[in-house]
Structure formats: structure tokens, C-alpha cells
Design a protein that fits this description.
Structural class: mainly alpha
Strand content: under 5%
Distance between the termini: 185 Å
Shape: flat
């Protein structure tokens, strides 16, 4: 009896010789693009359409450097409110002979610059703090500049802006000081208990009604002044003197209807009524004063 199992031994098949693999082709290297801020910004920018230059830009490009500088200077002067055109208008105003021509020059070429100049000075230096209204202060200052136009002398090489800037600023400073002094001297009647004894006495002295004799004396004095003015008018010789004395008579005859009475206002009224320039008005007033000095000696016209 066989005790050992028959063992089948399988022969291993022989290994086939494999053909050698062909060498792989090297991979193509990819181009690496490094992103920079310039490339990123450029890639995101939209396409900008080409803008054709205007006719004015083309004309400007054709100018020489000297012509460009002159054009830039002219444009800058046009933007300024007080420029060479304003100064030329002031000189033309001084030379103008007719009132109509002077009025046109002032309204169109001078007054806007004066108003802007005064507005800037008031706003920069805060001159309105002590005055009633902004418009009143501005208009009074502009009127003062109007009265000083004849004093400007362009032949000296003075710049008109510099001259009138100083004049306006000085006027505003003086007016503000005067207003401040009046405020310090003012006495409030709303609080009688705060008044001193001297202030109460002053108030009582001014709280009386003038007597009838005082009123009659004032009325007769006013009539005597008008009578003297008519007498002076009969003695004047030139047309300018006649226009001047007529304006004075008109002011005295309508004195109750005039709201503002001070030296500047009266001179302005006289200039408007007579149509004379400030220089002509000064000359004629000197001649009229000579007649007045001779007549005031007469007892008939001894008013004061």
C-alpha cells in the first residue's frame, strides 16, 4: 500500500523575453507667465476709444511757445474779476466827457470789479460784525470807491487793483473803528436803572420838545439860506457854476425828503443833480464860496 501521495510538479513556463520599450519623448515644458501689477492692470483695462482733438486744441498746438504763453496769460486775466480791462475802463472813465459814456463804463466795466473787491475784503477781514447789514456796508464802500475814481493816476505806473484795494480796506477799517466808538458811547434806554446820574440828566435834557420860538427861528433860517442861494445864482457866470448852485438849491428845498445827510451823501447828490465830474464840482464850488464870503458880511444875510 502506498502511503505517499503522488505529487504533481508543474513546470513553470519559461519567461518570454519582452521587447524593450521605446524611450518616451520628453514632455514639452509649458511657458510660465509671471503675473505682474502692470500685466494684470493692462489685461483688465477696457479699450479706450481714440478721441479726436478739437479745432481749438489743434490751433493751440500750432502756436509757438511765446504765443501759448500770451494766450495763457490772457485767459488768466479773463478769469480775474479785477484785470487790465478794468484798469482800462477806469482810465477811459476819467477821460470820458459825456455823463452817458461815463455811466456805461462804470456800470459795465468798473462796478462789478468794485463789488467783488469789497465783498472779498468784508468776508476775509470779518468787517460785518459791528455793522447793521452786509449790504449797507458793501454799498457804502462801493460808493466811496466810485467817488475816488478821479484820484487814481495810471501815469505813475500804479496798478488799479492795488490802489483801490488799499483805499477800500482803509475805509472799512476807519468805518469799523467809528462804529465801535459809537457803540461804546451809546446808552441803552431799555434799562434806566443801569444809567448813571450824569446819563440820566443827559437823557432828560434831550427829552424836551423845542419851543415855538425855536421852531420859528429854524424855519426862518432855512428860508434865509435859500434866499442867499438864489442871490448867489444871480451872480454866477459859467454854466458849470449855474449847474452847481442849482443842485445846492434843490437839496435845500427838499431837505425834509432826504434820508441821509452827510458830506459824502451831499456831494454824491450834487454830482448826480449837476452832471459835473468831481474835478469840475471842486472848481465851481471854490468860485461859489467866494460869492458866499462876500455876501455873508451883509447884515441881510448874516445867518450864523
Amino acid at each position: 500500500m502506498r502511503t505517499a501521495a503522488a505529487v504533481k510538479i508543474k513546470a513553470k513556463p519559461a519567461k518570454k523575453n519582452k521587447a524593450p520599450k521605446a524611450a518616451k519623448a520628453p514632455k514639452k515644458s509649458k511657458a510660465i507667465v509671471v503675473a505682474t501689477p502692470e500685466t494684470v492692470a493692462t489685461s483688465k483695462l477696457p479699450q479706450v476709444p481714440v478721441v479726436q482733438p478739437t479745432a481749438e486744441e489743434v490751433k493751440l498746438a500750432e502756436l509757438t511757445p511765446e504765443e501759448k504763453a500770451a494766450a495763457a496769460k490772457a485767459a488768466k486775466q479773463a478769469r480775474m474779476y479785477f484785470n487790465q480791462n478794468t484798469q482800462a475802463a477806469i482810465v477811459a472813465y476819467q477821460k470820458a466827457e459825456s455823463k452817458k459814456e461815463r455811466d456805461q463804463l462804470y456800470v459795465k466795466g468798473i462796478m462789478p470789479a468794485f463789488e467783488k473787491l469789497v465783498e472779498n475784503l468784508i468776508n476775509i477781514h470779518k468787517f460785518t460784525s459791528l455793522h447793521d447789514t452786509y449790504d449797507d456796508l458793501k454799498n457804502d464802500c462801493v460808493n466811496f470807491l466810485f467817488e475816488t475814481i478821479h484820484k487814481f493816476d495810471g501815469n505813475r505806473g500804479t496798478n488799479a487793483f492795488s490802489y483801490f484795494n488799499v483805499v477800500a480796506k482803509n475805509w472799512l477799517i476807519i468805518r469799523t473803528k467809528q462804529k465801535s466808538q459809537r457803540i461804546r458811547r451809546s446808552v441803552s434806554l431799555d434799562d434806566p436803572e443801569a444809567l448813571s446820574v450824569n446819563e440820566q440828566r443827559i437823557v432828560e435834557d434831550h427829552a424836551t420838545i423845542p419851543g415855538q420860538d425855536v421852531l420859528l427861528e429854524k424855519e426862518s433860517s432855512a428860508k434865509a439860506v435859500v434866499s442867499m442861494l438864489y442871490e448867489i445864482r444871480s451872480k454866477v457866470k459859467t454854466e458849470n457854476e449855474l449847474a452847481c448852485i442849482n443842485s445846492i438849491i434843490t437839496i435845500f428845498e427838499n431837505i425834509d425828503d432826504i434820508d441821509l445827510l452827510n458830506k459824502s451823501a451831499i456831494l454824491l447828490y450834487m454830482r448826480e443833480l449837476s452832471g459835473l465830474s468831481p474835478k469840475q464840482l471842486t472848481t465851481t464850488m471854490q468860485s461859489i464860496k467866494k460869492h458866499y464870503r462876500r455876501m455873508k458880511i451883509d447884515p441881510k444875510f448874516r445867518l450864523f
